[in-house]
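[Meeting: bench + compute handoff]

Bench side (C.D.) handed over the final construct sequence. Compute side (W.E.) agreed to return the predicted structure before the next meeting so the bench team could plan truncations. Sequence as handed over:
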Amino acid sequence: MKKLCYLIPSSATATWSRRILPTRVRELLLKICLCCIGIMCLAFQAQANTNPPATTAAAATAGVSAPSGTVNMSKVPPVTAPSRPGLFMLPPTGPGYYSLWDLMTRNKRAKPPVAPYAPSALLTTPAYDIDFRYLDTAGHEKDIFDPIKRMHLGDGWLLSFGGNFWYRYTHEADSRLNAAGTNNDFHMLRTRVHADLWYRDKVRLFVEGIDARAFGSELPPLITDRNHADILNLFTDIKVASVNNGPVYVRVGRQELMYGSQRLISTLDWANTRRTFQGVKAFWRTPTWDIDAFWMRPMIIEKGNVDSWDTQQNFYGLWATNKSKPGHLIDLYFLSLNNSHNLSSANVLAGNILQGNSNFHTLGGRFVGNIDNFLYELEGMYQFGQRSNLDISAFAVASGVGYRLPLPMNPQAWVHYDFASGDSKSNDGRSNTFNEFFRLCSTTWVSWVV
């Protein structure tokens, strides 16, 4: 099966006509905006007679610590930097042209521009972890959407708006390996809008809506192609402690998850609907450690209804990332997925026991980084538990080395070897098939370089 896709992303907010956005989408966006406007009004009312201290504003502009009793808002929110995926690439450095527009206008830069978004069509990083804190630094590069980012409403109040729109054309030859050999050509649209409100570094409210549509296909759309006017993220963060100069937060509500190489947990940006969960997460951030503990249930996509969480699946885990040495990361994790969906006897007889009645536990570790232009990655995972009354013993390994060539256009190459165990005998009383949980895509174990 061959795929040819064209992505036209645009990270921006805009005004759409009634003809483009259906009534249900407009109603959802209106509710989100009214919610944020109401919170804004409360913030203005609370701060109506209070002017922000000049020292706080100066400290934020300079990026230094604010006086005791105040909060340096230039460090809010405490963003989690996206992890390096498998087959990561080093961004270009040094003087040069950093976009086609730079080349056309002969704008040769001395160093890379500050860019919150990755220079790629796929953006797996959740919107709530896109870092716009550079806007509080004097002399930053300007953008037409800056005025709706990091709006300081008063002493300690911060509000941002944002969004994302993409159009995607897909051509699939022999789509899904169907018996008739039918090719599939179709179009997809996805619109996301969000609002983000902070009070100092204590409390956060984040809401993001999504509308995903597909049309023109010869075959029935996949469940991940369409989700009409729903909530992608809706959560609150509450700061509960500060340990070793690192904040500890509890996040409750609907939220996306993304960790490590994304071989096990990803936002699945390649799908038109993305992947999201609902539950609770506690996380601690320091300069050397990021530690998360969570309990979640995946959301079930319902095209014409409000999405609901899957009460038959419970996903929980502990993930720690050490970043004490610049350029190098160590991931250590324990993940469990309990799936109580019942399987029919026909599925069991056919050997199709992968989708339910299971309790998986995964222990894993990953080393990834670069030494100058040399790149490396090594990840190992072991699984145990039970699946359809069979004992689980499965494993997976991902390893690779790469090199960045000191040439124009920043070329890089990898040699990669990935392996995941499977079942050679279906009647030996054991299950050796590795479960990839909530991976980025089904091609995780196939290596490619773009």
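W.E. noted at the follow-up: Helices lie at 23-46, 54-62, 100-104, 345-349. C.D. will use this when planning the next construct.
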